Amino acid sequence: MAAINSLIDIDESSCIEENAFDVLARRGKNTKIAVVGRFPWIPKLRTIATTLWVIEQSPQEGEFPAEAAEDLLPQADVVGITGTSFINHTIDRLLALSKSSFVIVLGPTTPLSPTLFDYGADILAGVAVVESDKTIRSISQGAIFSQVKGLKLVTMSKERRNDRTS
What we know:
eight-stranded mixed sheet, disordered C terminus, 31% helix, 23% strand, Rossmann fold
C-alpha cells in the first residue's frame, strides 16, 4: 500500500509526522483498546490501557482469534485496525463493528485516502513515500519495513481535514 500512497496525491497539509503507537497511547490512555493485528509495541500499549484486546488471524498466547472481533470491537473505546485488513477483505466488517469507537487504521499498508473517513476511520496512520528511488532500492534489496529508506510515518486526521474544510 505504500506503493499506492506513492501514486495518490496526499494532502500533506492534513498530515503530521506521528507514529500510530503515539496516537493509540494518547487516545487510549485508561480506556478499553482493541487492536486488530500484531504490532511490536503491543506490550507497551498494555501498560497504558485499562483493557487491551489483540485480535489476530493466527492468535498467539494472550491474543484473540479473528472471530472475537464480533464481540470485542463494539466494547472498545479505541480501535486500531491494521491496513492489512484491506488485503484480506475484512476492513468493511471491522469498521462496521467499530462504529461507536475512535478508529485508527494503521500500518504501512494503510492507504492515506481521506475517503476512508466517510466509512468510519478517524485517523489514518501509514507511510508516505518521500524519496521513491531510495524506497525502490531498499525493497529490491530485500529490506524489511524497518529498513526501508525514503519513507516517513504520517497520520491523517478526520479532525484536521474537517478543520480545513469548514
